[in-house]
Amino acid sequence: MSTPRTLExxxxxxxxxxxxxxxxxxxxxxxxxxxxxxxxxxPGWTGSKEDFTPLLPLLASIGFDxxxxxxxxxxxxxxxxxxxxxxxxxxxxxxxIADACxxxxxxxxxxxxxxxxxxxxxxxxxxSWRTLSLLDSGPGALGESAERPLGMFLKVLGKVPLIDIxxxxxxxxxxxxxxxxxxxxxxTSNTVASLKAMTQHLLAAPDRIGGVRELHLxxxxxxxxDDDAWPHDIQADMARRLGVEIHVVxxxxxxxxxxxxxxxxxxxxxxxxxx
Length: 275
Prior knowledge:
By secondary structure, this protein is an alpha/beta fold. Helix content is 40%, strand content 19%. The protein has a single domain (13-141, 206-274), classed as Alpha/Beta hydrolase fold, catalytic domain (Rossmann fold).
């Protein structure tokens, strides 16, 4: 997840509900004056559309319409206990949103867990995308670690109230009151089934980079300089396997779009403009 620095929407960015043939999705959207293409941004585990909000006006400034959204069962997008939370299901949601948002070619970026969804979307809905970008993500499962005890998290989901889990995760962290309230509301608004599925995917998703490489879809890979999710060498190797170099965004960790949006723009926008 990302922690927003502010809850104020930048000029030109609007809240929206995207109606698709797979349901409705909460989104933040920006529209360029004379757009050349559309960018769809997929957030990660326990994240939301707000993970990209500071980046949206920068995309519009170079001629791109852009949409960030809450995935199925995530924050303000509804989900039921019986929805399809497979990677194929999440990727079909992404393709449906792209189709509903714009007739322009769509560039796809997935952040963290969203990168696993973006890979599935590239493989299963290849014609929907102009390019694929992976930010602070990996070729497959993140796996269990002392820093991220995902297995323990999975075991308590559905047994311990989300508010209690949130308070445990935030214990000792000092934040501005409005930001703390937002993070609590976001986490406790998630559908438990969606959280369970995303966590399971992070523990067990297969490595599909070989298949993505065979698509010959233009790819970009980047991470924050101090990213603490997938190991840096794993991300660099993923980029190598895709035939590209990894771009390191300075002064950022796991959420460059919030922590250093201009640095991310410097690293990523030349790729978008070239494709």
